[in-house]
User: Fold these one by one.
Assistant:
Number 1:
Amino acid sequence: MTGIQVRELTEKIGDAFYVLESIRFRQNFNELKSEFTRIYPNFNIAYSYKTNYIPKLCKIVDELGGFAEVVSDMEMEIALRIGVDPKKIIWNGPFKNEKKVEQLLVMGGTVNIDSAYEIDLLKEIARKHPDRRLNIGIRCNFDINDGIVSRFGFDIESEDFDKAFSLFSERSNLYLICMQCHFATRRLDTWKSRVKGMLALIDKLGVVPERIDLGGGLFGKMADSLKAQFDSEIPTYKQYAEAVAPVFAEHFKSAGNKPMLLIEPGSALAGDCMRFCAKVVNIKEVRGKAIATLLGSIYNINPTLNKKNPPIEVIPMGEEQKEYTDLDFGGFTCIESDYLYRHYDGKLAKGDVVVFGNVGSYSVVLKPPFILPNFPIIEISEGQVEIIKRGETFDDLFSTFAF
């Protein structure tokens, strides 16, 4: 973004705003899908709405033939409002609204059950709708050697898993459409472990569902400065595909009806598709430490608080710049740890705008209504500014309170 662009945008939009790049999101989706389908053609993507549910991005997924992966009735409602066929909605997550689960199942969507409490719920729904095929998946939990005991899904060695699997012999209208797993670890070796674990489980059970879903947890594209802050390799889309798809292709090479391979990326698609622009409102020195305060917060760009510095660009717009060493960018909140970036070396002045890259993952959906309402989201297309989400107002935040 040029200084002229940013100056014009601050005059039109305000001193802090997000910039969406939906073209990049579309490119990411197509590239990731292409890398898998060239090896295993029966492949698709279920986009993780929870990562960034901006309707424009969700519409792109639907337009390109992907699934909507939701973890709440709120996200299910977003999918329905933008016109997603219920058959393309997959509901995961540890908590589910019983009435909405029933609604989605009756409409033909898929519900992947996560815990034993859902077993009785499914039995009751099946009893109420004996003439409907209800599409059910089971979330599976096993050791992928990442040193973490995941809280999601059924332990495949447990009695609860056996009870969940036996549902399909007890209720003829419950249909096992999917076996699914999800692990948060993004390392390439753990993806190899999850595909081997799922295929071993399917062989043990003697059943091949229509879909085998390996969940989310993939790294996306990022600047080299951000990659260097991780303690493991940042795989490419191609590397993920080559770790997983050939195993599927070999395992099902003789099968007449090959199951669909699904993955549920979020950050891998949306992470590099948004930037955040924030004006420098003050620069001060405290006991020899330079600190700049921005009209922005860590909760605007990194609400998971992972302590990594995003890629940044400083747009000169203010007073005469000075050279700084080890300057920290602080946020507008009253939280001591609210820093958007640590250890900046370079020129800066009050009134400059700092552009933070790679902020598309969780930034919009996890931002709390704390201190200030959230800022607008725009997209620039052919020189025109499109308002993707208007800035929030105090009335938006106060509307649910009784005054």
Number 2:
Amino acid sequence: MERAQLTFTDMEYSGRRRRTRREEFLDMMDHVLPWDELVGAIEPYYYEGKRGRPPVGIERMLRMYLLQAWYNLSDEGVEDAIYDSYAFRSFMGIDFAAEQAPDATTLCRFRAIMSENGIGEAILGSITRFLEENGRMMRGGTVIDATIIDAPSSTKNESGGRDPEMHQARKGNEWFFGMKCHAGADAGTGYVHTVTATAANVPDIEEAHKLIREDDHTAWGDAGYVGIGKRPEVAGDGRLKDVDWRVNRRRSKIAKEYPEGPSRDFERALERRLSSVRSKVEHAFHIVKDIFGYRKARYKGLRKNLDRLHVLFASANMYMLGHAMKKESEARLRRQPLA
């Protein structure tokens, strides 16, 4: 997408003492995202524009959709933010002297196209291929984990009930109502390649076989995946039964089997080494839930929320890539000899 011509506002803002973190984040994402590939994933499902008013460009609508996802805004909220925020306007590439931002209704229709055609999953696939082709994602090992996404539990609504596709589940001493996001991440780099969603009461172990790539020979998981090798969907699969499942043992089990002393210390050291690999997927969860703010399901039903999760994890991968490239650039500058 061609950038808007430099305006007086741009010149005024360029004289500021410092840039905001929002501007730095959006500028980084603008540079690392493979826009041509993402637009290509949407193009087969978008309006042809043969009759009536020409549709808004795909990249512009995608940028608006991503702003909504990254900042967890409503349709009206992201439209208002574009008019209110210089950083948002710059990311969209809009010159208000010549054009206006797409309205909330247009974004709602675009989001419906994304959800109905499963384009979120296609975007995650495009990002995964991009990382693999550029040597950023390794093969052979996957880390699997799951996290709960809360959903509104109130029955004060038109139907008088809670979302039938969500469910309550207990974690520790707390009860949650919502869905569960299951993710498989590359063991070498932490980039997420597969995401699924279930009701919160579905055990982690039931989705594990869906998170393994065809060429994975090793998989890491927490104590929630104990006994996965005996599951029928794993033991009966010619490929999955040969996977080396490296699963953390339950702490209570170690304490029961080994007395206090060197033996227990050795077992705990082994568990820490497993956890050091397994924790890589938790960084992606941190980005989605804490940086992008997706701690509560945005829509009713699993399908729409899963589509948003695909986009968020694809964005989390590029967020991690952007920071990795920044560190690499800083390291190169430090290695350069002084003139």
